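User: Reviewer 2 asked us to show a designed sequence for the structure in our supplementary figure. I'm pasting the structure tokens here. Could you produce the per-position amino acids so we can include them in the response letter?
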């Protein structure tokens, strides 16, 4: 302690101390540039990586990503819960609409092939792979009041931060306000609808499960890694979440060329029409 005080007692000492931390890295910070991530996905050139980060439980992250970006979320130890929000980056008043995401494809349970729709009937993203199957599009994220009642606290800097509070910070960093925060979807903590209409947690599918999405439009992506509101555990124990993203325009083309239901195709046509109208041919 005395050494640290002496080291930073002058401006020069403080500068030298700060610069000495330049190469330091922890497991709870993004890798910048993302290409320096040590283990890129199989078949993905590290130069294509645009986001590489491990998000601890109770933390959040956000990133603006281009159309044609593929995002992989991985539940490292089986205890993550990735609450996800999307806003269209070039028109942020257009955002994820969970009601349409469930209603339009006639499916309440998220999985491979499921579209994530905006409030304008366009595709923000499509789930392309999923080996978890434990997700939720019905409950939204946790709240300050709910976490306060369950864990004793829900503030951002508490031991059990609520998703709504974390999303408020993520939104603010992108020029958005609390009124811009819609209901979210959640990955890695499943919920089922019982015959009587009640919702029951089915928890996690286990460690090292992943889900991948492809973006159809440039998006502000916000993720709050915090306990699901129906998590039956009496103590807050959310685990780390790995987030990787890379440029994958060919994958988007493959998705668009696939065989889809009429509702998906209509949303895709709406999306492509809007994108073509706003961008000159290359």
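Assistant: Here is a per-position design you can include in the supplement:
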């Amino acid at each position: 302690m005395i050494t640290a005080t002496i080291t930073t007692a002058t401006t020069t000492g403080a500068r030298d101390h700060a610069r000495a931390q330049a190469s330091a890295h922890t497991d709870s910070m993004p890798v910048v540039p993302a290409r320096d991530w040590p283990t890129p996905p199989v078949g993905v050139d590290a130069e294509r990586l645009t986001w590489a980060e491990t998000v601890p439980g109770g933390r959040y992250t956000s990133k603006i990503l281009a159309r044609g970006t593929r995002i992989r979320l991985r539940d490292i130890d089986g205890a993550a819960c990735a609450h996800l929000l999307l806003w269209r980056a070039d028109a942020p008043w257009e955002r994820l609409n969970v009601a349409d995401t469930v209603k339009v494809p006639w499916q309440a349970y998220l999985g491979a092939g499921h579209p994530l729709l905006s409030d304008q009937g366009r595709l923000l993203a499509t789930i392309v792979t999923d080996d978890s199957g434990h997700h939720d599009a019905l409950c939204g994220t946790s709240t300050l009041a709910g976490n306060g009642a369950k864990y004793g606290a829900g503030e951002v800097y508490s031991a059990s931060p609520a998703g709504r509070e974390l999303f408020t910070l993520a939104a603010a960093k992108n020029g958005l306000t609390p009124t811009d925060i819609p209901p979210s979807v959640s990955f890695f903590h499943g919920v089922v609808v019982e015959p009587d209409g009640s919702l029951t947690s089915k928890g996690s599918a286990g460690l090292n499960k992943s889900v991948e999405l492809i973006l159809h439009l440039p998006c502000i992506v916000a993720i709050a890694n915090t306990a699901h509101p129906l998590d039956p555990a009496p103590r807050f124990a959310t685990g780390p979440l790995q987030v990787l993203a890379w440029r994958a325009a060919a994958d988007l083309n493959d998705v668009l060329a696939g065989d889809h239901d009429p509702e998906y195709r209509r949303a895709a046509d709406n999306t492509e029409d809007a994108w073509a109208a706003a961008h000159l041919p290359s």
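For the response letter, you might also mention the following. The longest helix spans residues 262-278. The CA atoms of residues 153 and 159 lie 7 Å apart.
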